[in-house]
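Title: Prediction job returns without error message
Component: structure pipeline
Severity: low
Priority: P3
Assignee: unassigned

Description:
Job completed but the reporter wants confirmation the result is attached to the right record. Sequence as submitted:
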Amino acid sequence: MTGSSQGSSYPDLSSYLAEQPARRVADRAKWPPRGSARESRPPGRCDGCGPPPARPLLRRPVPTGVYARVPCWWSAERWVSHVERVYRRHYLPVRYRLVATTGGGISLRAVLAVATAHAAAADFRTGRNSGPLLGTTGAERGITAATGLGERTITRARTFLRLVGLATEVQEGRQRTLLERLDSAERGDTARGWTAVYALHHTSTHPVDNPVRIAAGQTPDGTPPRSGLVPTPPLGERVVSTGKEREHRGAPRPAQNRKNKPARQGAAVDARGLLLATRWRQDPDAPPWARFKTPTTWAALLALPAAHDWTARDLNKLLDNHALSGSRVFTHPRNPIGYLSWLLNRVDLADRPCALEDARDAEDAAAAAQRRAQQPADRANAVRRRAAGRDALTGPGRAAVQAVLDHRAGRWSQAAGRK
């Protein structure tokens, strides 16, 4: 074909070349001037792109099945109120275990502060996944910064919550591995460990009383009743006694009769039984139910064992022997006094359980006392022997031996010279 280019949209190549300078000028007018935002744009970025999105922080997954058989709480307010009730009711019986575990006790203010921090970090529906930080990591404030308490105090508060059954540690805290720390550093996280994860719930081993009916919108106190076991009255019904209800009761006794009636005098308390009860309740090896009763209550039962020179160690040994015999052992007896009385009736009080051990300890103590009494004489004898050895260094015997050695050395030197 003459006068046209084959395979091109332009019939004439000369006309296409003539239009190119005009096209370049028109296209150059549309471009932005030098020094504009287009020239300052970094290479490889589009006009609408911003900084790269930040990577989420590294989280430690909770293993499946750790929350099996772990109850849920009712709400954060109920749980914190329940913590206060349990502390006031069960702190003294549990304190000896807390001291043996952490080395000290804990105050109610510290327990409530730590409990509030854990409740704020937990799932508000179930009370699970409560893993607040212990210290401060970046912009996140931990329990130490929020409560102003030390790490040891927070550890004791957490231990108390576990001992009374108010919290369950489902995942133990640990240090991060090298790969985890490198991955965390890339995400902007400078933490070096994983905090422990707890599940917060109401206790079933240390119940407290709930004497009043909770109205709508009121903060409940005490242990909530279990569903199905206690009939639930309507919200407006009263459960506690009021002034109108007391008017229909029997008439009280006259005031003059109460004034003239002599004061009731309690039975005399056995001094040895009271001393044994006091020492047994203070013994760290005593069972928890031993502290459910006062020393005065235990004194009447322990009067006869105290007369046979029983000690707190004998009472604990009695419980250990009963457990080793294969018999059933009650960790929380309903009647502690009756339970201990039944155990004492099965043994001969004249034969103390720790008689042989006490005799062995007495022999060891006597031998140790004898060694301590012999130490001054042994020390004086050692001083005399040391002084005699020092005197022998400059005595006549050493001088005679040195003279003989010098004489032999001279003879050896003469013999060597002749050779």
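Comment from assignee: result matches the submitted record. Residues 355-393 form the longest helix (39 residues).
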